[in-house]
Amino acid sequence: MFNFHFSIYLLLLRYKKLRQMILIADSGSTKTDWVLASDDGLVIKSMQTEGITPVHQTVEYISQVLQSVCLHLVPESSLLAAIYFYGSGILPSVQSRMEEMLRQHFPCVAIVEAHSDLLGAARALCGRSEGIACILGTGANSCLYDGKQIVRNTPPLGYILGDEGSGAVLGKLFLNALFKGVLPVSMLDDYLQSVGMSYSDIIDRIYRQPMANRFLASTSLFINKHLDSELLQQIVIDNFRQFVRRNIQPYQRPDLPLHSIGSIAWHYRELLQEAVTAEGYILGTVSKSPMKGLLLYHTQVS
Predict the structure, then answer these.
(1) How far apart, in Å, are the Cα atoms of 166 and each of 144, 243, 272?
(2) Distance CA 137, CA 165 (A)
(3) pLDDT single digits (tens) 46-97
(4) Is the distance from CB of 139 to CB of 97 less than 8 angstroms?
(5) Angle of helix 230-243 relative to helix 167-179, nearest 10 degrees?
């Protein structure tokens, strides 16, 4: 009986601490991860919604998503102290509009901030320390971060003109090597069988269908399963080395650790280490998602 009442007492103490809560969102074009946490970093609840990109979506659509968050994640918004939203579509031109939409759905919240996914990556990876933060997923991006804000950014230019190090560019390099005979014919046959497509299907998918970058990045699933091939390993390493040369070297800060976030960085982290070291840099933290780092950033004492 004593243990039961003591447990209830601890829960009541915990609930008292939870009266100050924060809401953090990590949003991409496909999905948004939402985490409700106490001000000491304890995760209370989480959910996933459609992606939010204010540049391409209507106010009505975004409002529907935010209303879903209100209903299912934060029913009592008066207990919410702050909202921190990070998204790939949060350009300076739409930042204030996104913040206003958040305030409309959470009118009692004192602190409402909307920032780019790149600043989110920098805060998650570097915290309040100086460093180089990179995003290596379907696309790629990087910045020089001074512990407070982004001070330099090499334009990624997208997968046609740039995006070295990304899954999309990795897919381009892989398919090029596959169809031009750099890789064994047996691997070509295995790949076509695994995706159930022909050469003509792939050309159509890339040049005539939408979201070619996502299709190119999807080849990573096959590549990752066949990394016993030294030729494939070299393609991955070359992709990362080009990323460092074209995007990181312009910062001229080889003294700083190179931190990275995203699925490509995470699944190929050993080869990323090899590439970064070969280019004269030190690989720092590698993470699949920014949420853990963002929770730490927003709940630790400055």
Answers:
(1) 18, 8, 12
(2) 8
(3) 888 887 777 667 778 888 888 887 777 776 656 788 999 998 878 888 898 8
(4) no
(5) 140
What backbone torsions phi and psi does residue 126 show, to the nearest 5 degrees? -105, -15
Instruction: Give the angle subtended at the CA of 122 by the CAs of 142 and 146, to the nearest 5°.
Output: 95
Asked whether 32 and 25 are in contact (CB, 8 A), the reply is yes
Residue range 176-221, pLDDT digits in tens: 999 999 999 999 999 999 999 999 999 999 999 988 988 999 999 9
The span from the CA of 271 to the CA of 172, in Å, is: 18
Same domain, 141 and 222: yes
Going by the DSSP 8-state scheme, the letter that residue 296 receives in this structure is H
The model's pTM is 0.84
- For residues 152-184, one letter each, b for 16 or more C-beta atoms within 10 angstroms of the residue's C-beta and e for the rest, the string is ebbebeebeebbbbbbbbbbbbbbebbeeeebe
Q: Is the dihedral of CA 109, 111, 117, 120 positive or negative?
A: negative
Q: Is residue 256 part of a domain?
A: yes
In this structure, are 169 and 87 located in the same domain?
A: no
- Alpha-carbon span 101 to 192, nearest angstrom: 46
Residue 148's CATH number: 3.30.420.40
